[in-house]
C-alpha cells in the first residue's frame, strides 16, 4: 500500500533527475550502445570503410590465443589480489579488534593507503623491486635469488599483485574490523564460558559470522582488480614481459588506442560489460538477501 | 474551530485494495471524536484523508463550510500529532514549534511569543533550546503537542500519539490531552487501537472494522448497547463471552443444554427456534447460590488483580473458554466449580449470521 | 577482555606493528627518495635514509625548474588541475545524486522505475569497459582537453544515488508529512530538513569521491593531449619513460609524494566520516 504521495508535483521530479539522466544517457548508455554496435563491424584504422560482420569479431577473439592468455592473466591476477589483500586485512583486523591500548592509532596508520592512487602505489613498489637498486630485490639477492621482473613473468606478476593488493588492505581492514565489532560481545563470552580458547573462538564463531562481509569484499576486490588496476600495469610492466601481465582491460586499451582495431576493441568491451553485469548481479543478490535478513 | 463532515468518503488504493468503503461522519464543533478499531480497519487512513496526506478516491470532505478535498494539508487549517512525533531532529524545540508559523511568513518576534505561550501551557519552557534527541519520550510528546497548539488550528488530528510511551506516562498524557482539548475547545479527531484510551477520551466513539463504520456514539452507549457482535467484542476488557444459543419459547438454550429464562421481550415469539449468538460480559456474571445458577464454571486459571479477580475456565462438557470477573475479596483455587448467574438486564443477543444485535 | 593472557596481547601488538611497518614501507621509501640526489639511484642499493636534497627536489618539481618533469607545466599547476578535477567530481556527484535520490524517494511519477534502472545501469558500465566509444563521444562534443571533459563524464553515480536513497528511506515518512502540514513545499522541505539531516552522509561521500576524482588515471590519460590539463597522477608514468636508461627516481618520488599528499590528508582529517561512509556503502 505504498502509494502515499508524499509530494504531488508532476514536473519537479523530472527536473531533479534531469542532470543525472542526461549524463547517464550521453556518457554511459550511448557509448555502451556504440560499443555494442561497433563490435559487429570491421573498420579500417582511418575510418574509410566499415563492414558489418556479425559475430566475426567475437569469433576471432575467442580463437585468439593471446585473448585467452589475457583471460587467464586477469583471473590469476584478480584472484591473487583479492586473496592476499583480504588475508592480510583479516589478520590485522583480528589483531586490532581486541586491542584496547592504541586502537585508534593503529587504525589511523592502517587506513591511509586507501587514499593512494593505484598508479602511485605501483611506481613505488616498482622502485622497491628494481633489479639493480631496489631494496627488496637486494633482499632477495642476499637470500640467493636474482630478482628481475623485466624478464621473469612470475616476478612481474608478483609486483603488480603486491602493488594492487597493498592499497586494498586498508579497505578490507575497515570492513573486517567493522564486522567484528558488530558481533555481540555476549556471543564471544558465551563461547569463552563454553571453554573455547581465543583461536578456536575466532575460527568457530567470528569467522563464520564474517562470511557475508568476506563475500562482499571478494566481489568488490575482484571488480577492483579487473577494472581499476589499469594504471598499475600501464605505469610498470606495460603488459609484459611477453604477455604475462596483459589483463583484459589493458588489452582493450592497447587494441583500441595503440592498435586502432576498433571492432576488436569494441567486442572486448562488450565481453567486459557482460562480466561486470554478472559481478554486479552477484553482488546485489547478496545485498538483497542481507536486506531481507 | 469548526465542524468536520465526511460525506460518502471512499478510498481505493491503486492496487485495488478498498481501504474505506463508505464513510459518513458529522463531527460537531469542539467535539472529540475517537476512531478506534483493529489495525488495518481504516482508522488511520480516514484521519490522513482529513489531514490531506492521502487523497480521497470519492466523496466530499468539509472543514467548516469549506470543501477541502483539493487543498494542501497546510491550507486546511489543521494540526497533527504523529505516533513517532515527527520532530525535526536538527531543529531546537522552539524552531520545531515555530516552523509552520515561519512558513506562513509571520514575523519572528510574533512566532517567539506564540511559541513561548504554547510552551508555558505545556510546561516545556525550559526545553525550548534543546534538540529533540536530548528529550525524554514524554517531553517529545509534549513538544509535538506544542507544535500543534501553536498554530491554533480549526482541527486537531491525533494519530496514535501515545503508543510509543510507557504505560504510566500514557495514562498521564491521556489526561493531559483531555484537559488541553477541553481548555481549547477545539474539534479533535483521535485515532487509537487502545480501547481504554478510546473510552476515556471520546465524546463520541467511532468503531471501525474492515474499512466500514460499525457504530458511532458516546462510549457508554456503545459499551451498553453494542449494535454488532464486533463492537461488543472489541470494547471492554476482558472481552465479552460469546456462546452459540437457540431461542426456545421464553428461554435461551446456551450450548445445547444450559437454560436461561429470559425477561419479557415482545420479539421473542418471532425468534423462536432461531440460531443466535449469546453474549455476556465477564463483569455481568455473578457468583450465586446453587439454586440460582445459570452456569457452573470450572476454574482453570485465576488472575487476582486486587480489586477484582478474573476467573478463566470452561463449562463442564465443553471446552470453550469463559471468563468471569468477581469482586477481589473472595479467594478461589484452581478446580473450583463456581455457580454463576447472568445479569438479565445486561445480556446481549446477536443474529448468528448477520452478527447484528437482536434485543433492545 | 574475556581472559587476560599477556603473551596474546603482546602478539597482537607485535603483528599490528609489523603490519604497519610493511604497509608503511612504501611511503618511507618515497619520502626518503624525495630527499636524495638522482646520483644515489644509479648503482648500488637505493638510499634508505634521508638525504639533503629534499627542499631542492620539491622546489624543482613544484616549479618545473629546467623542465625537470619533461613537460611544459609545473607540478603545482598539475596539482591544481587534479584539485579542480577532484572537487568538481565530488561536488558534482553529490549534487546530482542527492537531487535524483530526492526525486525517486519523495515523488511518484510516470517512468519512475525506468529512471531508477537507468541510474542503476551506470554501475555496470565503468569507464574502463567502454573506453573507446566514450572517448569518441567526448571528442565529438569538443570536450577533449577541457575541465568539462575531465569531469562531467565521471559525474553520474549510481553508488552515491543509492546511498542517499537508502538514507532518505530511513527517514520516517511522517517527517515529510509534518513538513507538509507546516506548509513546506518540496524544495523547502529539501532545503530546510533533508539537506541539514544529510550533512554527515555528504561529508562521508565527499571524502570517498574526492579520492576517486584525484586518483583518476585512465580518463585524463585518454582525453588530455594539451599539457595544460595534465593531472599530477598521470604525469608520473611519463617521468618513468622519459629519461631512458637513467630514470630520475628522486624526481619521480618527489612527484608521487605530492600526488598522494592531498588525498591522504583528506582521509586522515576526515577519518571518522570516511570510515562510516565506506561501511554504509555495503548496505
UniProtKB/TrEMBL annotation, chain A:
The coding gene here is ugpA
NCBIfam families recorded for this chain? PRK10561.1 (NF007852)
Q: What's a Pfam family in this record?
A: BPD_transp_1
Subunit info here reads: The complex is composed of two ATP-binding proteins (UgpC), two transmembrane proteins (UgpA and UgpE) and a solute-binding protein (UgpB).
Instruction: Output the superkingdom of the source species.
Output: Bacteria
Keyword tRNA-binding among record annotations: no
* SUPFAM superfamilies reported for this sequence: MetI-like (SSF161098)
Residue ranges occupied by any ABC transmembrane type-1 domain in the UniProt entry: 67-283
Q: Does the keyword Cell membrane apply?
A: yes
Which family, according to the similarity comment? Answer: Belongs to the binding-protein-dependent transport system permease family. UgpAE subfamily.
UniProtKB keywords? Cell inner membrane, Cell membrane, Membrane, Transmembrane, Transmembrane helix, Transport
Membrane-spanning parts: 12-30, 75-96, 108-128, 156-178, 205-227, 266-287
> Where does this protein come from, organism-wise?
Natronospirillum operosum
Q: Tell me what topology the record assigns in the membrane.
A: Multi-pass membrane protein
Gene3D superfamilies with a match to the protein in the record: MetI-like (1.10.3720.10)
Protein name, entry field: sn-glycerol-3-phosphate transport system permease protein UgpA
Q: Biological process GO terms, please?
A: transmembrane transport
Principal place of residence: membrane
TrEMBL record, chain B:
Q: Which GO terms describe its biological process?
A: carbohydrate transport; glycerol-3-phosphate transmembrane transport; glycerophosphodiester transmembrane transport
Stretches assigned to the ABC transporter domain: 4-235
Q: Name one Pfam family in it.
A: OB_MalK
Q: Name one GO molecular function term.
A: ABC-type transporter activity
Gene Ontology CC: ATP-binding cassette (ABC) transporter complex, substrate-binding subunit-containing
InterPro entries the UniProt entry points to: AAA+_ATPase (IPR003593), ABC_transporter-like_ATP-bd (IPR003439), ABC_transporter-like_CS (IPR017871), ABC_transpr_MalK-like (IPR015855), ABC_transpr_MalK/UgpC-like (IPR047641), Mo/tungstate-bd_C_term_dom (IPR008995), NA-bd_OB-fold (IPR012340), OB_MalK-like (IPR040582)
Question: Keyword set for this entry?
Answer: ATP-binding, Cell inner membrane, Cell membrane, Membrane, Nucleotide-binding, Sugar transport, Translocase, Transport
**Listed PROSITE patterns:** ABC_TRANSPORTER_1 (PS00211), ABC_TRANSPORTER_2 (PS50893)
- What is the official name of this protein in its record? sn-glycerol-3-phosphate import ATP-binding protein UgpC
Originating organism: Natronospirillum operosum
Q: What is this organism's lineage?
A: Bacteria, Pseudomonadati, Pseudomonadota, Gammaproteobacteria, Oceanospirillales
Automatic annotation (TrEMBL), chain C:
Q: Does the keyword Cell membrane apply?
A: yes
Task: Offer one example of a GO biological process linked to this entry.
Answer: transmembrane transport
- Sorted UniProt keywords: Cell inner membrane, Cell membrane, Membrane, Transmembrane, Transmembrane helix, Transport
Record field: transmembrane: 12-33, 83-107, 114-132, 144-164, 193-214, 247-269
Q: Name one GO cellular component term.
A: plasma membrane
Q: What membrane topology does this protein have?
A: Multi-pass membrane protein
Cellular compartments annotated: Cell inner membrane; Cell membrane
Q: Start and end of every ABC transmembrane type-1 domain?
A: 79-270
Tell me where on the tree of life, at the top rank, the source sits.
Bacteria
Subunit structure, as described in the record = The complex is composed of two ATP-binding proteins (UgpC), two transmembrane proteins (UgpA and UgpE) and a solute-binding protein (UgpB).
Similarity remark = Belongs to the binding-protein-dependent transport system permease family.
Role noted for this protein: Part of the ABC transporter complex UgpBAEC involved in sn-glycerol-3-phosphate (G3P) import. Probably responsible for the translocation of the substrate across the membrane.
Q: What is this protein called?
A: sn-glycerol-3-phosphate transport system permease protein UgpE
Species whose genome carries this gene: Natronospirillum operosum
Its taxonomic path starts at: Bacteria, Pseudomonadati, Pseudomonadota, Gammaproteobacteria, Oceanospirillales
Amino acid at each position: 500500500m505504498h502509494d502515499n504521495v508524499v509530494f504531488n508535483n508532476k514536473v519537479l521530479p523530472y527536473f531533479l533527475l534531469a542532470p543525472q539522466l542526461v549524463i547517464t544517457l550521453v556518457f554511459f548508455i550511448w557509448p555502451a550502445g556504440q560499443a555494442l554496435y561497433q563490435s559487429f563491424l570491421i573498420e579500417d584504422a582511418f575510418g574509410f570503410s566499415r563492414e558489418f560482420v556479425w559475430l566475426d569479431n567475437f569469433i576471432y577473439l575467442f580463437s585468439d590465443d593471446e585473448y585467452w592468455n589475457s583471460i587467464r592473466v586477469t583471473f590469476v591476477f584478480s584472484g591473487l589480489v583479492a586473496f592476499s589483500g583480504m588475508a592480510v586485512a583479516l589478520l590485522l583486523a583480528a589483531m586490532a579488534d581486541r586491542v584496547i591500548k592504541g586502537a585508534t592509532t593503529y587504525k589511523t596508520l592502517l587506513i591511509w593507503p586507501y587514499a593512494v592512487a593505484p598508479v602511485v602505489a605501483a611506481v613505488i613498489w616498482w622502485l622497491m623491486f628494481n633489479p639493480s637498486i631496489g631494496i627488496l630485490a637486494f633482499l632477495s639477492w642476499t637470500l640467493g635469488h636474482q630478482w628481475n621482473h623485466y624478464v621473469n613473468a612470475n616476478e612481474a606478476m608478483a609486483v603488480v599483485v603486491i602493488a594492487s593488493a597493498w592499497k586494498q588492505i586498508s579497505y578490507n581492514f575497515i570492513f573486517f574490523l567493522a564486522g567484528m565489532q558488530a558481533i555481540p560481545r555476549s556471543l564471544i563470552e558465551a563461547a569463552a564460558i563454553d571453554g573455547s580458547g581465543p583461536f578456536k573462538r575466532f575460527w568457530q564463531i567470528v569467522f563464520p559470522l564474517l562470511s557475508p562481509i568476506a563475500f562482499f569484499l571478494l566481489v568488490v576486490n575482484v571488480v577492483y582488480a579487473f577494472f581499476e588496476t589499469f594504471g598499475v600495469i600501464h605505469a610498470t610492466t606495460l603488459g609484459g614481459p611477453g604477455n604475462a601481465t596483459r589483463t583484459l582491460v589493458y588489452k582493450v586499451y592497447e587494441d583500441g588506442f595503440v592498435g586502432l582495431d576498433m571492432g576488436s576493441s569494441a567486442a572486448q568491451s562488450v565481453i567486459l560489460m557482460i562480466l561486470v553485469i554478472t559481478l554486479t548481479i552477484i553482488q546485489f543478490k547478496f545485498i538483497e538477501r542481507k536486506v531481507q535478513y | 474551530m469548526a465542524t468536520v463532515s465526511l460525506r460518502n468518503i471512499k478510498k481505493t488504493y491503486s492496487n485495488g485494495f478498498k481501504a474505506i468503503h463508505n464513510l459518513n461522519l458529522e463531527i460537531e464543533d469542539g467535539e472529540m471524536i475517537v476512531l478506534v478499531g483493529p489495525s488495518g480497519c481504516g482508522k488511520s487512513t480516514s484521519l490522513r484523508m482529513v489531514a490531506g496526506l492521502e487523497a480521497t478516491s470519492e466523496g466530499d470532505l468539509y472543514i467548516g463550510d469549506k470543501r477541502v478535498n483539493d487543498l494542501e494539508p497546510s491550507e486546511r487549517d489543521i494540526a497533527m500529532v504523529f505516533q513517532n512525533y515527527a520532530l525535526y531532529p536538527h531543529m531546537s524545540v522552539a524552531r520545531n514549534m515555530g516552523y509552520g508559523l515561519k512558513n506562513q511568513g509571520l514575523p519572528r518576534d510574533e512566532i517567539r511569543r506564540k511559541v513561548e505561550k504554547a510552551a508555558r501551557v505545556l510546561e516545556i519552557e525550559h526545553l525550548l533550546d534543546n534538540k529533540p534527541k536530548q528529550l525524554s519520550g514524554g517531553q517529545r510528546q509534549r513538544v509535538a503537542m506544542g507544535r500543534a497548539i501553536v498554530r491554533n488550528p480549526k482541527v486537531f488530528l491525533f494519530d496514535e500519539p501515545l503508543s510509543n510511551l510507557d504505560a504510566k506516562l500514557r495514562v498521564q498524557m491521556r489526561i493531559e490531552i483531555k484537559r488541553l482539548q477541553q481548555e481549547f475547545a477545539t474539534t479533535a479527531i483521535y485515532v487509537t487501537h487502545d480501547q481504554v484510551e478510546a473510552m476515556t477520551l471520546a465524546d463520541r466513539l467511532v468503531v471501525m472494522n474492515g474499512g466500514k463504520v460499525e457504530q458511532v456514539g458516546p462510549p457508554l452507549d456503545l459499551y451498553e448497547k453494542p449494535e454488532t457482535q464486533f463492537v461488543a467484542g472489541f470494547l471492554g476488557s476482558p472481552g465479552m463471552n460469546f456462546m452459540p444459543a437457540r431461542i426456545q419459547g421464553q428461554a435461551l438454550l446456551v450450548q445445547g443444554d444450559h437454560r436461561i429464562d429470559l425477561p419479557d421481550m415482545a420479539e421473542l415469539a418471532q425468534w423462536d427456534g432461531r440460531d443466535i449468538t449469546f453474549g455476556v460480559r465477564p463483569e455481568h456474571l455473578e457468583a450465586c447460590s446453587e439454586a440460582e445458577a445459570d452456569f457452573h464454571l470450572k476454574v482453570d486459571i485465576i488472575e487476582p488483580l486486587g480489586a477484582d479477580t478474573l476467573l478463566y475456565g470452561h463449562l463442564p462438557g465443553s471446552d470453550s473458554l469463559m471468563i468471569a470477573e468477581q469482586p477481589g475479596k473472595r479467594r478461589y483455587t484452581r478446580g473450583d466449580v463456581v455457580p454463576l448467574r447472568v445479569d438479565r438486564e445486561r445480556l446481549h443477543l446477536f443474529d448468528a449470521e448477520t452478527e447484528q444485535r437482536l434485543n433492545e | 577482555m574475556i581472559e587476560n593472557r599477556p603473551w596474546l596481547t603482546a602478539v597482537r601488538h607485535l603483528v599490528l606493528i609489523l603490519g604497519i611497518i610493511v604497509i608503511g614501507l612504501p611511503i618511507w621509501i618515497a619520502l626518503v627518495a624525495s630527499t636524495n640526489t638522482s646520483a644515489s639511484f644509479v648503482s648500488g642499493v637505493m638510499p634508505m635514509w634521508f638525504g639533503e636534497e629534499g627542499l631542492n627536489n620539491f622546489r624543482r618539481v613544484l616549479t618545473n625548474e629546467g623542465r625537470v618533469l619533461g613537460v611544459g607545466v609545473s607540478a603545482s599547476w598539475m596539482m591544481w588541475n587534479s584539485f579542480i578535477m577532484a572537487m568538481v567530481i565530488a561536488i558534482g556527484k553529490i549534487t546530482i545524486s542527492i537531487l535524483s535520490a530526492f526525486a525517486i524517494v519523495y515523488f511518484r511519477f510516470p517512468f519512475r522505475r525506468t529512471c531508477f534502472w537507468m541510474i542503476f545501469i551506470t554501475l555496470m558500465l565503468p569507464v574502463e569497459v567502454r573506453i573507446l566509444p566514450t572517448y569518441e563521444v567526448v571528442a565529438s562534443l569538443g570536450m577533449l582537453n577541457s575541465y568539462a571533459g575531465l569531469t562531467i563524464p565521471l559525474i553520474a553515480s549510481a553508488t552515491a544515488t543509492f546511498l542517499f536513497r537508502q538514507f532518505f528511506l530511513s527517514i520516517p515518512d511522517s517527517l515529510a508529512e509534518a513538513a507538509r502540514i507546516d506548509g513546506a513545499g518540496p524544495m523547502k522541505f529539501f532545503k530546510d530538513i533533508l539537506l541539514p539531516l544529510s550533512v554527515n552522509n555528504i561529508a562521508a561521500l565527499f571524502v570517498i569521491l574526492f579520492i576517486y576524482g584525484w586518483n583518476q588515471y585512465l580518463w585524463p590519460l585518454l582525453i588530455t593531449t594539451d599539457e595544460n590539463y595534465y593531472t599530477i597522477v598521470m604525469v608520473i608514468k611519463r617521468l618513468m619513460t622519459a629519461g631512458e636508461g637513467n630514470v630520475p627516481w628522486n624526481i619521480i618520488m618527489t612527484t608521487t609524494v605530492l600526488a598522494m599528499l592531498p588525498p591522504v590528508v583528506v582521509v586522515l582529517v576526515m577519518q571518522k566520516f570516511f570510515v562510516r561512509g565506506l561501511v554504509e556503502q555495503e548496505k
